[in-house]
Specification:
By secondary structure, this protein is mainly alpha-helical. The protein folds into two domains: about 425 residues, MFS general substrate transporter like domains (Growth Hormone, Chain: A, Up-down Bundle); about 80 residues, no CATH class. The chain contains 18 helices and four strands. The strands form two sheets. The protein has a two-stranded antiparallel ribbon. A two-stranded antiparallel ribbon has the order 3-4. Strand 1 and strand 2 form a beta hairpin. The protein is globular.
């Protein structure tokens, strides 16, 4: 028994931190490679299912939006019932089933319509059965992708108790994400376009299996956080209790408030903050709230001070979070429309190599990875010497820089599209269709590069900000908040495209006959307005976790925030 106890104690010492790090990074790489089906989804729907281009882009937006909304539900389930580990392996299995069914749609002829011949005007769309087959496949893969992606981020961060190490983990995590996505957007997309869709989806399936194997093998090194019940129930209790006690006078005495298990160490306690004071009533002790032994008699009429402060933190950060939606929306629109632009442009590199349209999105990944790797260690230190600034950028400043680059990318997108449409038509020798003149597809690189730089400042900064600022009970939701805003942005981007299609002629089936640049100019106006809103929100926001932020600045470890 002693030997068994010693082994358990030794194993506990080995759990978490950098011992678990290789397994999480390996799992992330497998997940990203398995996402090769999503990178080229628009082209797959157009080429293999004869779906028109704008509708294919809309389906892609819905899939991307759903894949980034599911993590919110996954976070709630993980925090309340199953824990991150169980949610991840179950999602892996669902993902596996989805990839198998998607592979079948690419190999079985009766699961997809007859492919259109080049130049044919009598293409037959998918039947109801074929639509059902591809939609079921997309539903399963989307659920699997959404259930694993951000949950693995949360579980990986929970392996570290030191904020500096958490920040380093986020840095390595996102570097692995972007490097793997680079391979996906080039290698796997090339296989899908030039060999076969079956081979491409097969590679995704194998990557999924490898990622699952790595995740399970490393389980002995993981630090597990037990589910503590849904934090939202506690937050809901604050709202209900404060409403029920709305006529109760607010006290300034610490002894009048309920602190839960800390009730007997009043010397260490502080009165509730004065911000959103009306919520403080939820923690006021009134007659009938407590039993004689100090336990709660009516849980929906009294809460702890900590629960009140947790809700205040969430409310105060929501305006900042909401400003990110109109940053992600243009990115979602640009991702789908850039692929459609690339399909109409000269994609040849040399005489024999033809770049897949979806591969152009790799430039966003490249510039994001470059910015992540170079900014903190090379670019910013040089700028500090030149400008004589002695402080690092704060999290809010980094996010603001992301806003600026995002607006700049839309300006460049509008200018490039105007130039693309200004070139005369020519006959594509490969498919016999009329295409806007031989403008090189590499003209799309500047706008994609600016989006990549914006993402390097914006999204990792958001994750780090929320993870540091959110209360402990909502750490799981901190990373899911990013997925929630991205999901909402993808749905909003689909709605914007539908509105544009219904009230203008800017987005016809053949974008060569439309005015795509006008869509980008509208996004520029929205971006400028949204940046002003963000500046106002960030000016009013006060960091809740100043100690962590200050310590990280002293140690020179602010990397992503």
């Amino acid at each position: 028994m002693e030997n068994s106890g010693e082994r358990e104690a030794l194993l506990d010492i080995k759990r978490g931190s950098w011992n678990a790090f290789p397994y999480f990074i390996g799992t992330v790489v497998g997940l990203q490679l398995a996402g090769g089906w999503l990178s080229n989804l628009i082209v797959y729907l157009i080429d293999e299912f004869n779906i028109n281009s704008i509708d294919a882009a809309q389906i892609s937006n819905v899939v991307c939006g759903t894949a980034t909304l599911i993590p919110v539900a996954a976070a709630v389930v993980a925090d309340s019932f199953l824990g991150c580990f169980s949610v991840i392996w179950i999602s892996f299995i669902i993902y596996l089933l989805g990839l198998i069914s998607l592979l079948l749609t690419s190999t079985l002829d009766n699961l997809r319509p007859i492919r259109c011949e080049n130049g044919s005007e009598s293409c037959v769309g998918p039947s109801s059965f074929q639509y059902a087959a591809v939609y079921v496949s997309l539903a399963l893969t989307t659920m699997g992708l959404g259930g694993t992606g951000y949950t693995i981020t949360t579980m990986g961060a929970s392996q570290f108790s030191n904020p500096k190490h958490q920040t380093r983990y986020f840095n390595w995590h996102y570097l692995a994400v972007y490097v793997s996505s680079l391979v996906t957007s080039t290698g796997i997309v090339y296989v899908e376009d030039n060999l076969s869709w079956a081979w491409g989806f097969g590679i995704c399936l194998v990557a999924n299996l490898v990622g699952l194997a790595i995740f399970l093998i490393g389980s002995r090194y993981y630090r597990f956080v037990k589910p503590r019940g849904s934090p939202f129930i506690g937050l809901a209790r604050v709202v209900v209790a404060s409403v029920r006690k709305r006529k109760t006078a607010i006290s300034s005495q610490i002894t009048d408030y309920y602190y839960g298990d800390d009730a007997n160490i009043n010397a260490m306690l502080e009165a509730p903050s004065t911000c959103l004071r009306s919520l403080n009533r939820a923690a006021l002790k009134t007659k009938g709230d407590m039993q004689e032994n100090g336990t709660i008699l009516k849980p929906w009429e009294i809460c702890t001070v900590q629960q009140v402060e947790d809700l205040k933190t969430l409310i105060q950060i929501l305006p900042l979070w909401s400003s990110a939606i109109l940053v992600a929306t243009p990115i979602g629109i640009q991702m789908s429309l850039s692929v459609l632009q690339a399909l109409t442009m000269d994609r040849h590199m040399g005489q024999s190599v033809r770049i897949p349209a979806a591969t152009m999105l790799v430039f966003t990944i490249i510039f994001t990875a470059l910015c992540l790797g170079l900014f903190d260690h090379i670019i910013w230190p040089v700028l500090k010497k030149v400008t004589r600034i002695d402080r690092d950028l704060t999290p809010l400043q980094r996010i603001g820089v992301g806003h600026v680059f995002n607006v700049a990318s839309m300006v460049v997108s509008a200018v490039v599209e105007s130039k693309r449409r200004g070139i005369g038509r020519f006959q594509d020798p490969e498919n016999g269709t009329n295409v806007i003149g031989r403008m090189s597809v590499f003209w799309l690189v500047p706008q994609l590069a600016l989006v990549g730089i914006a993402e390097a400042f914006h999204y990792p900064g958001q994750v780090s900000l929320y993870y540091q600022e959110f209360p402990t009970c909502l750490k799981g939701m901190a990373t899911a908040m990013i997925s929630l805003l991205i999901g909402m942005a993808f749905y909003l981007s689909g709605a914007v495209i539908e509105i544009v299609r219904s009230v203008t002629d800017w987005l016809p089936e053949d974008i060569n006959n439309g005015r795509l640049e006008n869509v980008y100019w509208v996004l520029v106006v929205l971006g400028v307005f949204n940046f002003g809103y963000y500046v106002l929100c960030s000016w009013m926001y006060k960091y809740k976790n100043n100690n962590v932020h200050d310590q990280m600045e002293e140690d020179g470890q602010i990397v992503l925030n």
